[in-house]
Amino acid sequence: MLLPKKTKFRKAFKGRNPGKATRCNYVAFGDYGLQSLDNERITSRQIESARRAISGHTKRGGKIWIRIFPHTPVTKKPLDVKMGSGKGSPEYWAAKVKAGTIMFEMNGVAEDVAREAMRLASHKLPVRTRFVKREEA
Question: Is the pLDDT of residue 136 over 70?
Fold first, then answer.
């Protein structure tokens, strides 16, 4: 699973995630991409699960780029703990994804194979997605 090697702070504020993506919003490396249509936090487990779905369907052919990385620590308090007594301990890492972000890219496979692989990956993610192709200039 993905997680940062080192962070400045162990815990982070929750923050908000409004608006559309202004970066990572076009297919830069591959020929096909999976674009988010919602704003959401995506955990490192979900990213790994989607990656495995893509690589499993393509039988490890072609190349896959993961364009999102889980930088944000998400904390959780244990069950049956009263209010107060500080913030919980970090449980998992998440990537904050905005609408329009390209999350995965592929190259080296046929379009129908890429489309089906991205469809399988989208079932593993908590956001609505769409399949996009590189725009030839």
Answer: no
